[in-house]
Amino acid sequence: MVALTLLPSDSWHERNNSVQVLLATDSELVPIRSASMEQVCATPSFTFSHVTKSVQLGAPPLDYHASFVVPSTQGDWYRLVVLNCHADEFQMTYSDIAINPDGNYLSLAEQPYERLFSGFLWAWAALVGVWLLHLLLHRHFNISAQLLLTLLPLTKGALCVPSLLYWQTAARTGHYSSSLTWAMLLVETVERMAWVLVAYFMASGWRITLRAVHPLTLRIVMSFIAMLGLSYFVFSYFAGLLIFMLLLSYVLLLRILSTSGWQWAGSMSARCSTCSWRSSALPLSTSAAKMMRSSST
Description:
Helix 4 (112-137) packs antiparallel against helix 6 (151-173), helix 6 packs antiparallel against helix 7 (178-204) and helix 8 (215-238) packs antiparallel against helix 9 (241-296). Helix content is 58%, strand content 11%. Residues 277-282 and 284-292 have low confidence and may be disordered. The longest helix has 56 residues, at 241-296. It has two domains: 2-96, no CATH class; 112-249, no CATH class. With 297 residues, it is mainly alpha-helical. A three-stranded antiparallel β-sheet has the order 4-1-6, with no helix packed on it. It has nine helices and six strands. The protein has helices at residues 12-15, 30-33, 37-40, 112-137, 144-148, 151-173, 178-204, 215-238, 241-296; strands at 2-7, 19-25, 53-57, 65-68, 78-83, 91-96.
């Protein structure tokens, strides 16, 4: 579908009657190429030769908008020709939308995405069902690590949901939803964080050879995963390595400042405790010295 809008100036109608917009194939343009502009512009509306579509904009009753559908019945190149016989300047907006015969707005390269993400969604759902059934049947022998592994197919399946809705909406309406784009990016970030978390616990032998993770180590790992998720989100949205490195440098700077602050606070606390011990010990030493003098006398 082709949409056209003519934007005339205030004095445009004083010198110009209309603008002819032609949509023609290469074979239909052969008579026009062999004719002069005087011959083509001799008719008030375009009837010089047969073309696929002909639209007259700006003519009474001053219609400035036009849209027409081009059927793809034969494989050929279409050319959009604008004829302004009076050669006055004008502005025009143009947009085109390709619609497949079945009403699908996606291109041939994007049409498989619907069935692809639909198949992935059913596959991950089946995997989650089989895994949960396995945990239920062997619940007396389960360990926490097996429950943690459930995050992997769950996040993968959750990522397929907004992706499938995104391509279905684009196929039905021709518009790419920005809200679904944000949802895909957010779910993908959570999925990456879940993979790193599971990989760390499996590598450390959690609940297998390691009974529990130290709380300090767990806080450091969770902080690193959060930093990784935030960096991936920003990098994927802005698609810029400079912003990614800038964010990473700020995070490292805050980490260094916080470490230095804690060390400074610990040093000051130790000094204050030493000063308080010395001040409290001073009267005792003074009284002990007085007792020694009195006993010697």
